[in-house]
Specification:
Blueprint (H helix, E strand, L loop, with lengths): L12 H8 L13 H25 L7 H10 L8 E5 L6 E9 L8 E11 L5 E12 L2 E2 L1 E11 L2 E13 L5 E13 L4 E12 L2 E13 L10 E8 L5 E7 L3 E5 L5 E5 L5
Helix pairs in contact: 1-2
Amino acid sequence: MQKLLIAAFVVTSTLAVACSARSTGSNGSADSNASDNADANEAAGSAAQTSDIEQTLLGSVQSQDPAAAAGSVAAAQWWPAGCSTRTRDASNPAVVRVHLDNCTGPFGVRQHSGDITITFSKNADGSLHAEATSANMTINGKAVTFSASRDISVAAGIIDVKGHAAWTRETAGGETVSHTTEVETRIDVAKKCRISNGTAVTRVGSREVDSTLKDYEVCREADGADGCPTGEITHTHKATGRTVSVSFDGSNQATVTGPRGGTAEVTLVCGG
């Protein structure tokens, strides 16, 4: 798997690390709250898992023609050999059926098994539309669901992807996590860079974390690994109003600012 993929929120896992360090503002008061931190970490993890699957499904698309898009997805190598199989529907060449068998992904995803069907079609404006739905999917033995509805435009080496995706799963403690995203991503094929803006809502039981992504950009390095990001991601815990933001400057250090203004520098896992 690539290190960051399309996962606009992957590195927000650093939020939990930074907050657990209990950074302080100038008044010396702690900036952390255990429940907020845990929920924000669930938001980060869910976003990473969702976008990792979506990149896997759509990252190889290079044409707005539904049949050609399905062909490129069916031919792509996503996970190590033997982990997944991809077949085009015998009666509809614009449909791809994916079977996962104990695949591995980010944020503790192990034993990822199940089926995903991707149906490509053409929008009225000529852009490509992709609908993805899961069936019988489990991760670490627990049931999960995934769906995505994305519109894709390809022109002069620029790929624009927009729409929404949804992900549900169960925590180790038995709480249901539901995560939805509305993100627009522009991919520059020649520069091997992608920049994303959008929002996400994560509900953990009855609690909600709202996230905003601003000019989050990742570029691929010469060795094929994703480099360190630039941009900003903000998490707001709806019940308390507490906000934590994570700023990225292209280095492997991110700055996390807590609800009282305290900051912490966190080392990212990024680059070659």
